[in-house]
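To the structural biology subgroup,

Please find below the input and predicted structure for Dihydrolipoyl dehydrogenase, which we are adding to the shared reference set this quarter. The sequence is reproduced verbatim from the submission form. If anyone notices a discrepancy with their own records, reply to this email rather than editing the shared folder directly, so we keep one authoritative version.
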Amino acid sequence: MEQYQVGILGGGPGGYVCALRAAQLGLSVVLVEGDRLGGTCLNRGCIPTKALIKSADFWRELQQVEEFGIRAGESSFDFAKMIERKDRIVHNLVLGVEQLFRTAKIPVIKGWGEITEAGRINVETETGQVRLKVENLVVATGSTPFRIPVPGANLDGVMTSDHILDEKTLPEKLVIIGGGVIGLEFASAFQALGVKVTVVEMLPSLLANSDDEIPRRLTSVLKKRGIDIFTKTMVKEIKSAENRLITVVENAKGIQEIFSDRVLLATGRKTNLCGVNAQRLGLQLEGGSIVVDSQMRTSVPNIYAIGDVTGKAMLAHVASAQGMVAAEHIAGHQVEMSYRAVPSVIFTHPEIAAVGATEQELRTAGVKYKVSKFPFSANGKALVLGETMGTVKILANEEGVILGSSIMGPQASSLIQELVLGVEKGLNAEVLAKTIHAHPTLPEAIMESAHGILGKPLHLA
Ligand code: NAI
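Predicted structure (tokenized):
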């Protein structure tokens, strides 16, 4: 039986980061993974979707090049080649992670593992069973798409984000069930590639947890582009007839049938506890997720859990941060996981990003706050880019301390980081307003919005 100080079940952005950090800290580590390293994020989620979104954005921009004085002539695209490019990027990144493991001398046991008791993992590999004895066990088994329990959810052509990017052809019409992060990223990209997209959401608005303004503005942008959006609408059934799918929905207007070639289920994800034997181990669960403390310890000594299985924010960067905390705690460091400043980013067009409190959260909590909004239409670089839609919104307390922010607009996913630092460190908006920002750049919109908290932005009439 092989023995290690740390054994990790699952090689996604939680597990593999935890393994690398533990090895850096001098611990002997083993990682068990049944699939390729990188987990959902690298193989089926963050990276492949962003690769396709880049292709879609390129195509969208190509339609607008005349505005930039360019005559491109006849142009077309090859969806299968876009998918090939996505596969190459994923492949290269997986090879990169494998190389990191080789350099750090971390063995990866390839197979599906089962925790038989605290400190013991059995792995079924192609060459037989491997039995591991580990001092500390880290559960990093992630999550899987949640398939809504409606008739027809398992029909051919009804797929989740796990498989839709394996398709080699584009559908003519696509129904997306769920107007959350996954649904809207796919809606934005597929519409750009000419697909007729319909989004069906059961709640009154898209992106229900975002700052109120975001779903309102985004809904209007997406509708203008020709995406049909049904909110407060329940899916009753999915049927198949003559090679087409029919999604039967019900809302205040009654029952309607929506025809499409494919249906994407984007109705959230559920924790994956396969091989964990949570009950037998006595792991405390809440709503199907493993309960952890701020050092990522579960209710069972020497068993840690990180990533989507903990049911916190199901985000790759949160999983990685939790993985670092678990590794460092095992190595004897005094560490604590903080969720104070977790960025969330949505790669629609325009991009959306947020951190900290939303306006409605502050209202509900009775916190007195100031709000400032600076539009990209008043930012020189945004004009140069031809991307003037959206704003930088900052929320601060009465003293000016930044409490939250939401950005909709060009490169929002990168811009948010300045505000993440602001929320994490409890910075006053004055710090951002008085920090020199290079000109002409998009971050100047953040500086201007921060000026708005102090009084008034300079470049706004
Ligand atoms: P989500 O929770 O963001 O959205 C699911 C949506 O489906 C909700 O709006 C919900 O009301 C709706 N819904 C549920 N059942 C429904 C039904 N029967 N009919 C109509 N609508 C229904 O979950 P999503 O989009 O599947 O994403 C899963 C996780 O992955 C999230 O935690 C998300 O944050 C994460 N993710 C993050 C990304 C990023 O950081 N850019 C990209 C993709 C996913």
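Summary notes: Residues 148, 177-183, 185, 200-203, 208, 234-235, 266-269, 314-315, 345-347 surround NAI (CB under 6 Å). Residues 1 and 131 are 5 Å apart (CA to CA).

Regards,
Lab coordination
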